[in-house]
Amino acid sequence: MNSSDIAQLAIVGISACILAPFLGSYMERVYAGKPHPLAFLGRFERFIYKVTGIDPHEQMNWKQYTVSLLEFSFISIAVLFLILVGQGFLPFNPQKYPGLAWDLALNTAISFVTNTNWQAYSGEASLSYLAQAAGLAVQNFLSAAAGMAVAVAIVRGIARGTDSREGLGNFWADMTRSVLYILLPLSLILAIALVSQGVVQSISGYVPTLSFEGKNGLIPLGPAASQIAIKHLGTNGGGFFGPNSAFPFENPTPLSNILEMLAQILIPFAFPFLFGAMVKDKKQGYMLFMVMFVLLSIAVWGSLTSELRWGTLEGKEYRFGKAGSALFSVLTTITSCGAVNAMHDSLSPLSGMIAMFDIMIGEVIFGGVGSGLYGMLALVIVAVFIAGLMVGRSPEYLGKKIEAREMQLSMIAIIIPNFLILVLSAVAISLSAGRAGIANSGPHGLSEILYAYSSGAGNNGSAFGGLAANSVFYNLTVGLAMLLGRFGVMVPMLGVGGSLAAKKRVPQGSGTLRTNTLTFGVFLFFVIIIVAGLTHFPALTLGPILEHFLMLQGVKL
Prior knowledge:
Blueprint: H1 3-32, H2 42-52, H3 62-85, H4 102-113, H5 129-159, H6 171-196, E1 207-210, E2 216-219, H7 224-233, H8 254-278, H9 282-310, H10 321-334, H11 349-360, H12 371-391, E3 396-397, E4 400-401, H13 404-430, H14 432-435, H15 442-457, H16 472-501, H17 518-552
Antiparallel strand pairs: 1-2, 3-4
Helix pairs in contact: 1-8, 2-6, 3-4, 3-5, 3-16, 4-16, 5-6, 5-7, 5-16, 6-7, 7-8, 8-9, 9-10, 9-11, 9-17, 10-11, 11-15, 11-17, 12-13, 12-17, 13-15, 13-16, 15-16, 15-17
């Protein structure tokens, strides 16, 4: 690594660690309805409630919260689907693009509503400005807000006392506050900063140009900066332009690259501190943060080591280099963002495996906004239960007894994404429709399929890039993975929150297993590694690990 690589890594990491505690504290005040610096926007919040008929003080139990979440999400899928298939008849379409095919439109609608942003198309060659701004950008805000709202509701259930009138909060109020006080202000600041660096923000038509070879071409424009800001802050991912953050109009300078990486991890870094504040035990938040940070550090070290030793510049932007591409690949996969500044298909086998494993692990190494926290809480509950059995103590978490119902729901939340990854990959590799999309034979071809379903089930959205995913088979199966991977975790964890909310708090005693200590943090770390390793190591052995050893032997694949 050269000095600029080290400086980039240090700036991003230190900045996020400094800002996260302040943002976490601010977010706790927002969701609790306490005074905060942007409280003057309260008139807009009250206006929204008045127009929509929402009572923000109405408490919902976990079933009501879940129904509201599902109703909102499936209506959003339907609306976005209609925009995409009908964009040819809608305004703000200077390039006269027709509507998307039904299977691609359905895949894309599911993708953006589930905070995945998997793209089987190239944005500048497929979508109108209206579809990009009023369809995709809007869902970038709303899907991120939904994940944040669910995480806050689950934490409320854990932190709740014995007052039977308390609930998990109000879904509509949590959504409104997430967008109005957190996502919109941060996105506005980042969008202005990106425009200052040269990121395009325009509603003009594409500009005709003449290439160096004397061929006619077009320079794509569009309202990109506004969407790029929220796609990173909301850990949505996806690209306004096909090459994503490798394209100069999305990521033109070293500073814009740093800002985009920082934006990906800022809110996920803040959520453990929000958790500690909400449960009134800051050490709990510190413990979760440190476990996540250690996992992140190992991933960064492994990816950089592999890429600098065995990687090439093929498929990477020269201005970012191997180290910059590896760092971006780790940050985008540990946070479920999915934005890329290089082809993950071109990463060295072990770097590609680390990016894939970051997703397979449940994207709990900070994870998506909100989703990383409640994914980690599922593993915490499992760890508490196992530790309690090992030491002969009653499994308790923050004064609430962990019993069969919480374990069953947590295991469902953990198993569903992993089941989808392995089963759908096996189906794809077994059918000609699945094998038809593979660009490479051998272990790398398997890696392309594994990565696609990992990305879909983990709601990441990045891709190896070598898989021809725009087919009816992949549009429908990856769409299914995205849908079940999102709500198959959200709903059980809301059930956990509801179950814990109904339990009385048990006073701590000499037999209480303390979960805010270094010892429990180490135990949780190994539970995460063992669960993910036992699940996915066999498949990774046949894919990137085998490819690595064949590469060392000089076998041409």
